[in-house]
UniProtKB/TrEMBL annotation:
InterPro entries: GT87, UCP010361. This is DUF2029 domain-containing protein. It is found in: Cell membrane. Pfam families: GT87. Residues 482-512 are annotated as: Disordered. Belongs to the glycosyltransferase 87 family. The chain crosses the membrane at residues 39-58, 116-134, 146-167, 179-209, 215-243, 250-271, 317-336, 383-405, 417-437. It is a multi-pass membrane protein.
Amino acid sequence: MRSVPDDARPVLPTAEDEVAAAGSELIGGPAGRHALIGISWWTPVRVIALVALGMFALGMAQKAPCYGGDWFESATSQYTHACYSDIPHLYRSRGFAGGVVPYFDRIPDDLSGGMAYLEYPVLTGLFMQVAAWLTPDGGVQDEARMYWMVNAGMLMACAAVIAVCVARTHRRRPWDALLVALAPAFALTATINWDLFAVALTAAAMLLWSRSRPLAAGVLLGLATAAKLYPLLLLGPLLLLCLRAGRLRAFAATFGGALGAWLLVNVPVMLSTSGGLHVREGWTRFYTFSEERAVDLGSFWLIISQRTGDPLKDANTYAVALMVLACAGVAALALCAPRRPRLAQLAFLVVAAFAVTNKVYSPQYVLWLVPLAALARPRWRDFLIWQATQVLYFVGVWMYLAYLNGGNAHRGLPPDGYQLAIVIHLLGTLYLCALVVRDILVPERDVVRRDGSDDPSGGVLDGAADRVVLGAAHDRLYAARQGFHGGPPPGGGAGGHGPVEWGTARGTERAS
């Protein structure tokens, strides 16, 4: 039997997480020290991919009442069965059933409901169009059901990619990806919209970054931004961490790759040559729609609006201001923390801040956060608490829509109940954010770093010496608490490069 060194064996969650250990009793209990994990065909990555596919299939089965007719035959059943999806409805209302080409063709007025052009980024529009090409001909409703099924198949592939990428991002912690594969909110919301495509590209970008391939990571991050706006936010944490570690060349490669890939995808659609170069109206629709959109479901802005009767027409300005403040807080945390934060931690915080402060917090936005949460804080208890709040909101939002669309019957959740559901799911996200912040400020609580690691998924940042650090008093306090006298511990502070001298005047360190 081939032996595996201890420092090369995967970290088993059942050995360090009491909830994982208790849950493992369903399949025979925690694995023993000599278990042949990763040697047989059943490697962690393969197991996780199969579990992710199984959970995705369960999520599809949950949509069965709607696939059988509720999407089109009942105004409220698609909400009371919690099986609503944008995909079949937009097949007709965005012109795919009639052969409308996204961004180039105007959607007929009798279909669009006032939406002249597709309101999605270019790569998502391409994803939708490819699914339309693959949808067999038939009646419009039958085609719409098949369109959902085709999209579900493509999104299932995205789910598998996400699970595999998360499993491979941290070489010694592949089992953390089970948090993604088994996340109930992930399965329930996977086929509401097309977000999984952007999430898959983002997960692949983070995998390539962890392999110290910043240019390739930037290309995938640019493609992800061409599919959804939120991946752009990851450039902020990358800039801050590269600045602190003195690895700005790596950030420049990532930024250049992202910009080049985004332009390559968008410019052909953005510009028209008929009558001279000008920005195409169809391309701008996503950006103007995002700016003009009123406060909507899931956001605390909706609670304020409903409670006060004020439509909050300036909510966009307020949301941007709050997001700027949140980003300033993340920046201070990145540059002042006693040890350089891990990339996944800052990425989770900034994306969560965007979701919480946004004018709308759709139920599928949880898909953005699940892979980042699994990498940022792989602790089952807290992850499941957060997931419970998201599942509660998933049910609450559909019951609220059933109440609004049920006529005089008012079956479902009234506004007061729905507002409570919003508060709970926002508090759930903020709870996980608070734990991540605590892990950053008190690094010995970070489960990923308990084996002496710095940032195993940080690529060129892993073990790098700090060059720009603010708030040296925090470092001295941390060093005193840990019994160090010359600076922070190896990895993240000194980066494992020997003794360092901390310059309190400039906030920099100099390797001796």
